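forwarding from the other thread:

> can someone predict this with zinc ion?

sure thing
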Amino acid sequence: MAWWKIIAFIFAAIMIFFGILFIWGSFSAQGGGGTWIVIGAISVVIGLGVIYFAARKPASDTTNVTLNIDLPVNVGMDTIKCKSCGGTITKNDISMVAGAPIVTCPYCHTSYQLTEEPKW
Ligand SMILES: [Zn+2]
């Protein structure tokens, strides 16, 4: 649990505690009557509201999980262009020959090894 949630729960508990005391006190002989009930009720509502917001699961948790799943597998694969003619090379034009990726251009039929950092 985050530290601010603990503080929020303590704050809420104090608010509800004093809210109930005000409502209770309004019925006693020395009490303030209707005004005390209103103050007590507002205090309890604020306390309950703080508990509601503190107990809620933060939205950022689910966002992080979704971002990790949606991470693209082949970044930049669709930007490869042919060395000879500049035609766009797709994943289907790359074949593994003796452990090395060999590109066969569908436009000019040039075959060459795909390097780690190609310079066109
Ligand atoms: Zn080509």
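The helical segments are 3-26, 34-55, 59-69. thats all i got for now
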